């Protein structure tokens, strides 16, 4: 806006196999979704890839330097960021000069610019802390001030992720469920022997429906389903975990008898 002073933001985006795996921005805006500056930089990289200079991994660049160049590089780096990196630089220097230190027992050194191994898991960046904070905030408002609408928007985002086969869908729903389980009203209602409100029950029903979408996904691996079953059983064993209507047991429903049996059954 013309009335606002122009500000410059420092943005860093890490990629791994065509996925944004981490983002940082100096604007300080905290949200579940990327800030406008990260989006702008991403679009710039997509539309003008030739104008974004590519660099070798820093380990390769350092390998090409001689001793004097390496010393100049380190000293200039410390000079520019001395208040931030000087304590770490001194600590590392002491460890490197010590023959028996742990750092000297490992061959080579880490390089965050070299990228992940092809066998490493990669997924889109998700600010887990912000997901937890926002869900906690919406729940604390007790369904008022549009908080129920905001929670339904988060549920819609999970559905969108599942539709795109984004692994963050299950991660995000796990974070949301953990905050629902930690809601202090569950303990209060259990102590008072009262039932939860209809609006709150609708949110829990949506939560259950999304978990059904996840565990019934035919594209998921068996180890993923096993981990989700373990997590669901863990939540189910908590005293304050709400009961499904008509099911007052402490065990998960046994669906085995409801499935078709015999040789003609479709696995």
TrEMBL record:
Residues 9-46 form the SWIM-type domain. One of its GO terms (molecular function) is zinc ion binding. Signal peptide: none annotated. The keyword Nucleotide-binding does not apply. PROSITE patterns: ZF_SWIM (PS50966). Keywords: Metal-binding, Zinc, Zinc-finger. GO terms for cellular component: Cul2-RING ubiquitin ligase complex. PANTHER family: ZINC FINGER SWIM DOMAIN CONTAINING PROTEIN 4, 5, 6, ZINC FINGER SWIM DOMAIN-CONTAINING PROTEIN 6. This is ZSWM6 protein.
